[in-house]
Amino acid sequence: MASQFLLALVVIAILCFVYIKKKYEFWASYGVPYLEPEFPYGNFKEAGHTSMADLSTKQYRLMKGEGTFFGMYFFLQPLIMVTDLDLVKTILIKDFNFFPNRAMYYNIKDDPLSGNLFAVEDNYWRTLRTKLSPTFSSGKIKLMFHILKAVSDNLTDYLENMVGKGNELEAKDCMARFTVDIIGSCAFGIDCNSFNDPDSRFRKFGTQVFDKPRHRGLARLFLRLFPEVGRSLNIKAVRDDASGFFNGVVRDTVNYRLRNGSNRKDFLNLLLELKHSGVYLSMDEIAAQSFIFFLAGFEASSSNQTYCLYELALNQECQNKARKCVQQAITKHGGLTYEAVCDMSYLDQCIKETLRLYPSVPVLERKAFQNYQIPNTKVVIPRGTLVQIPVFAIHRDENIYPSPLGFDPDRFAPGEIIKRHSCAFIPFGEGPRICIGLRFGMLQSRVGLATVLNRYRVTTCSKTTIPLEYSSSASVLQPKGPLWLRFEPL
């Protein structure tokens, strides 16, 4: 009996070995260059221990010279990374219908907040995008500028109280207060009062979603690759406490407005106007879109402003030039007006150079909707295969951007932009799934940075981390620890 049991184990082991070997021969069978996998992790053993920005850059640099794309494995699942900008453009734009989905995990039934525009797929995404696009027009965003200006005034007061004749501040904390107040007001019509209340619940739950997500590292990748498994097991995407808070806020605010006929010029009101104009949005859909608008505007914009201040502190000549641009626009337009903020071209270049160095989403992901033959090859990407576009690595490729680690806003002067490939700079994505709120995000960053630069010189201090390291647990590009800078009144 013992010998039979041992024989069975040997047979099972051999079958497992043959199965694994066969799975790991997928890319070789196509003649595709690939990174040698390591069982059981494939090529993602470091996920969860290092940031996706650093891991994807390492993979990109190892294989960039091997062709326009290369193969990898997540455990036993094949996936592909694209290194050629023409192929990036083809996937994101020309052949978008083959890659319409982002490969984000969501579970609308058990977790309605996850069913937002950023995550959902196929026809539901198309319908939702069509409904929401009018709310992000330049005209609608301009109507919200008074909210940005009011929070800008609060930021000015906060800095005056905190800095005095010059003091060190944790820059991410400062800019997070600024953005959470703007987004809380624009998305939910609520005064978060973060400058006076560091324990604001909006800030607390917004931070938790990114700093302490429900799923991290390998688990997050698994759910992206096998969403049906996750949904069949009723696995949620959003933390329960955050979900309960945001659902409650939206429900209470909408009910209050409907009862009292309140008409604020903010994002939530625009969603309600859609509902009244015959475009149906359920309460869950309104909550989900408000939730993602809050998260995207809070995290991406606060990080962008923080990183920009960090680079300007390291590059005083650029900072002086940006300040001059800000002050000239304020003088020309009689204050920090919408027109003034839109007339700060060099500051805009600084923001874009910051987005190049620190894209909030370091790796764009798309999932093949159907079998797809890569142009000019015999390689067929099977339906459901994950395609990765390493934004962070592309933005720091010395063949695209000479001296890529240097901060040089002149790279985004109009004459320089046209010299580069259109997909050499994709911090917001590209094609039909480009970030719907990019105009608002850019406006928010301009206002925050202009408010600081108009009155303060920002420098490094003894607590400034140089060079930066990135968090391995956050789902977006975040500094590993606090980012301290010194703010000196002019």
What's this entry about, in short?
The protein has 490 residues and is an alpha+beta fold. The chain is built from 20 helices and 9 strands.
Could you walk me through the main structural features you see in this protein, from its secondary elements to its overall organization?
The chain has 490 residues and is of the alpha+beta class. 51% of the residues lie in helices and 8% in strands. It is built from 20 helices and 9 strands. It has helices at 2-23, 26-30, 52-63, 85-94, 122-132, 138-143, 145-163, 171-188, 201-211, 217-225, 227-232, 240-260, 267-276, 283-314, 316-333, 338-341, 345-357, 391-395, 414-417, 438-453, and strands at residues 69-74, 77-82, 167-170, 364-367, 372-373, 380-381, 386-389, 456-459, 484-489. β1 (69-74) and β2 (77-82) form a beta hairpin. α8 runs antiparallel to α14 (283-314) and α14 crosses α17 (345-357). The radius of gyration is 24 Å and the shape is globular.
Q: Using the CA coordinates, give the radius of gyration.
A: 24 Å
How many beta strands in the DSSP annotation?
Answer: 9
Mean pLDDT: 87
Q: What fraction of the residues are assigned to beta strands by DSSP?
A: 5-15%
Task: Name the structural class.
Answer: alpha+beta
Order of helices and strands: HHHEEHHHHEHHHHHHHHHHEEEEHHHEE
Global geometry: globular
Question: What descriptive keywords fit this protein?
Answer:
globular, three-stranded antiparallel beta sheet, 490 residues
